[in-house]
Amino acid sequence: MKLLGRLTSINVRKVMWTAAQLSLDLPREDWGAGFRSPQEPEYLALNPNGMIPVLVDGDFTLWESNSICRYLAAKAGAKTLLPAQPQARARVEQWMDWQAGELNNSWRVAFMALVRGQPATPEAIAASVAGWNRHMAMLDAQLARTGAHVVGDDFTLADIVLGLSTQRWMNAPIERVELPAVAAWMQRLSSRPGFAELVGNGMP
Question: Where in the numbering of this chain does the GST N-terminal domain appear (predicted)?
Answer without folding.
Answer: 1-80
